[in-house]
Amino acid sequence: MEFRVPKLTLPDMRQFTSDATTMFTRAKQFTEEKLGNAEKTEYDANFENLQMRYDKTKHWTEKLKSQTEASLQPNPNTRMEDFVYLKLDRKPPDRVNNTEQLGLTMIEAGNDFGPGTAYGGALVKCGEAQMKLGQAQQTFIQTTLQNFLQPLSNFLEGDCKTIQKERKTLEKKRLDLDASKAKVRRAKTLEARQVSESELRITQTDFDRQQEITRLLLEGVSSTQAHHSRSLNEFVDAQTEYYAKCYQCMKDLQAQLRTCEPSPSLGLYNRPNSTKSTVQVGNITGAHNNEYTPLSASKQARVLYDYDATDSTELSLLADEIIYVHTAPGLSKDWMMGQRGTTKGKVPASYISLLD
């Protein structure tokens, strides 16, 4: 394979030479400033204060964003996975959080013990409460992502990058200005001095224009902080609503469990011998008979949409609740048998999603 060097035209060569000379001049000026051999143009106090406020805002915005993300998702591997999906512009997979997983385990254990028993019924009740807590947590996380973290990210990805770019440009203009000033001081002839002063006027104009652009951007940080303050209020409102839901959920569960404490004569794990007797567990009354489906024959499923039963053979559903389902002889592929506690009924297959 033949390698060909692109041919440079005369204008291209001149531009390349000019750019190389400019870079060399800036590097020389920067080095001499660091060594204390050259003067440096200082910004006014107001401009310096604007830069300091921006640097502080950027630093703490990055910290706040990072710590909030760690609080919402403590697992660093999961955070990294979500970050990759975000960069690929793909939606992260739906996950069952730890609280919901605990609820599923409690419900599974309660159904295995028998929801009609005191202990089994209490486990089911606790599991259902944990599921509500987990769903409230999911809602809180989504609200926080949208109303609090998104404005922080927008600032870091938008305004910050623009300001950083303009500040770098301003620093280059300052180096050009100071190099021109040094060139005027070193001029030995009247003609050389006139040429240097002409270059100085141009670099001074470029510097002043770039400083004004940068100043306007830095002044905009005030409105950014005001916007972030409103976002912080929305974050606190979301937290308040989340913890209020959690408190109410646990108060309701506490009241239910107090009404279904097992009788000392019955024992926690004992079940009545009579097939007609019932055990009251909160507001669940289960008749002990042979119609209870074993856990091994059923699968857990999440309800996708609300569904109102049309007759006594069907089971009403609430979106996001967890039920047990299994196939049954005589049912079409569009229906499955669903079970919540001891309540059974047909459910439409399109309204549920089987869990692994």
What does this structure look like?
With 356 residues, the chain is of the alpha+beta class. Helix content is 61%, strand content 9%. It has seven helices and seven strands. The protein has helices at residues 10-34, 45-72, 76-87, 98-113, 118-186, 190-219, 221-258, and strands at 278-281, 284-287, 299-303, 322-326, 335-340, 343-348, 352-354. It has a five-stranded antiparallel β-sheet, with no helix packed on it. A hairpin with a 2-residue loop joins β5 and β6. The longest helix is centred in the middle third of the chain and has 69 residues, at 118-186. It is elongated and about 105 Å long.
Features:
single chain; 356 residues; alpha+beta; five-stranded antiparallel sheet; 7 helices; 7 strands; 61% helix; 9% strand
Structural class: alpha+beta
Side-by-side strand order of the widest sheet: 6-5-4-3-7
Number of strands: 7
Q: Could you report the average pLDDT, rounded to the nearest whole number?
A: 83
Give me the Rg, rounded: 35 Å
Biggest sheet character: 5 strands, antiparallel
Q: How much helical structure, as a percent, in the residues?
A: 55-70%
User: What is the CA-CA span between the terminal residues?
Assistant: 55 Å
- Classify the beta-strand content into a percent band: 5-15%
Order of helices and strands: HHHHHHHEEEEEEE
Low-confidence stretches: 263-296
Shape: elongated
Tally of helical segments: 7
